[in-house]
Amino acid sequence: MATGSATARELERAVDSAFRLRRTAVNKLIDELELLSGRGRRGVVLMRELLLDSGGESVLERRFLRLVRASGMPRPVCQVVFRPGTGRVIRVDFCFRGSNLVVEVSGRLGHSTDRDRQRDARRRNHLQQMGQVVIEFTTADLIDSPDYVIRTLRTALRVAA
Questions:
Q1: Of 57, 75, 31, which is closest to residue 66 (Cα–Cα)?
Q2: pLDDT over 90 at 103, yes or no
Q3: What percent of the chain is modeled with pLDDT above 70?
Q4: Distance CA 135, CA 86 (A)
Q5: Nearest CA-CA partner of 159 in 102, 78, 101, 103
Q6: Can you tell me the distance from the alpha carbon of 89 to that of 50, in angstroms, rounded to the nearest whole number?
Q7: Which pLDDT value is given to residue 52?
Q8: Which residue has the higher pLDDT, 131 or 83?
Q9: pLDDT digit string (tens) for 38-92?
Q10: What is the C-alpha separation between 74 and 31, in angstroms, rounded?
Q11: Which residues pair with 104 in a beta bridge?
Q12: Which of 63, 69, 71, 90 is nearest to 79 (CA)?
């Protein structure tokens, strides 16, 4: 369980890393937290709060989930896998239940070279050919323009529903 020596930021990173490395899942952590919770258990309140925006695999994805939650919008499903029948697997950051909307959040890591952008464009094209509506937000969007993100997301959800 969370100890008093770890900061909230360190715990967020540890949780996100556990998801990224496929060591656990949100529902497993929530179940474990319920088993361990009780009077006098240190860190339970903090872990419950951190798990509200968990499920992504990066600080940027966590920021997106926090923004969506704060706006009162429905929580998206994280790290969704599409198997288009080509033998290829496409994993996306977020999908919203009841719609064909895919949301990708792109930081600098893994999206900066020509080859990275080509791979991203081909993935996006393939998803769109499968009938998905794909929107993408950058680090700058999430940090500097959260109103733009929410406005765009609300419109996309209305259209994709």
A1: 75
A2: yes
A3: 74
A4: 23
A5: 101
A6: 29
A7: 61
A8: 131
A9: 666 777 666 666 666 666 668 888 899 999 999 999 999 988 888 877 677 888 9
A10: 22
A11: 136
A12: 90
Instruction: Determine contact, residues 41/3, Cβ cutoff 8 Å.
Output: no
The residue assigned the tokens 């556990």 is 18
DSSP for 47-106 reads HHHHHTT-SSSSHHHHHHHHHHHHHTPPPPEEEEEE--SSS--EEEEEE-TTS-EEEEEE
Taking a C-beta distance cutoff of 8 angstroms, is the pair 53, 65 a contact? yes
**Structure tokens, 29:** 């952590």
The CA distance from 50 to 19, in Å, is 13
pLDDT band at 101 (very low <50, low <70, confident <90, very high): very high
Which residue's structure tokens are 């209305």?
A: 158
Q: Which domains does the chain have, with CATH numbers?
A: 8-51 (no CATH), 59-160 (3.40.960.10)
Q: How far apart are the first and last CA of the chain?
A: 40
Q: Name the strand (E) or helix (H) holding 112.
A: none
Sole residue written with tokens 């949780």: 15
